[in-house]
Amino acid sequence: MKNNAELYNEIIESLQNGDLLSKIMPSILIFAKRIDDAEFIKWAELEMNGYYNSNPALTEDVVVPEYRIVAGQYLDQHQRIFVIPNATYQFITEYRLRQGVTELETLSSSQKLLTVQDQGMLDIIRDALNTSVHSYTFDSGQITGILAAIKGNLINRLLKIEPKIKEEIESKEEMTDYQSTIAGPLSMLHPLIAPVASDLYKNGHYRQAILDTYILLVNTVKTKSGRHDLDGTGLMQTVFSPKKPVIKISDDPDEQMGFMWMFSGSVMGIRNPKAHRLIQQHDPQRTLEWLSFASVLLKVLDNAEVIKEEGQSNVPNE
Hints:
About 60% of the residues lie in helices and about 10% in strands. With about 325 residues, the protein is α+β, with helices and mostly antiparallel strands. The strands form 2 sheets. It has a 4-stranded antiparallel β-sheet with strand order 2-1-4-3. The chain has a 3-stranded antiparallel β-sheet with strand order 5-6-7. It is rod-shaped, with a radius of gyration of 37 Å. The relative contact order is 0.08.
């Protein structure tokens, strides 16, 4: 689904391409509702569906806009032109069209004189001038001007909204830049980390990103060693034991012990506290550093040997 900025740009492009208003108005209405502009929504509903009593948008405060006026003449039942007897009533030679844009476009293409029978206006003339008229006639060519005026009104509304949309675009670009910034470092970590922690990190759930990453680390050690019966510090001190390792990192007993304590520390000092207490973590940089430490241990684990039984070893690729 398009965001507001994309929908706005699509509408502008349609206007520049000269697309029919009937094609653009549905997107306009969606856009107006997206930005929650009540006045814009009402205008779009009236222009799209017409200024009719059946349209819920036509409330008592609504007046058919002046740009919908066409000039014409009233005719009697014999199709004779009705002559206005008094300049005071000259205004009735102007009529405001209520049709929606689709109907206006159809009428505009007729290229002939059009006739309207508006009973309300006919009654007003009868009561005011004590005479009967049958219909109102006008040149359909005037509708082209109405459609242009609707389009002009639309453009003015969009221009007023443009600063808000630009702000949204800039905010989105800043967020994209930020996400690109954090995606870069995460993509450099061990490939198992991003699927677990990436979304949590991007959305600011730093504590959970760290916890889930170190749970991943523990589970990876279990999988590699085959010791699913152990967990936590007991797991790490058993499988990385310098005396009888299940996972051998180094031939040097001191180095092997050092890594045993690193893996043990990752459980005692990082996983367990975050699993057992609601520790607050608000620093993205500090979080990235903890994730990086887990990445180092996972890469060490990748290169370590699994001692299947005394005197035999292999280096699995997983």
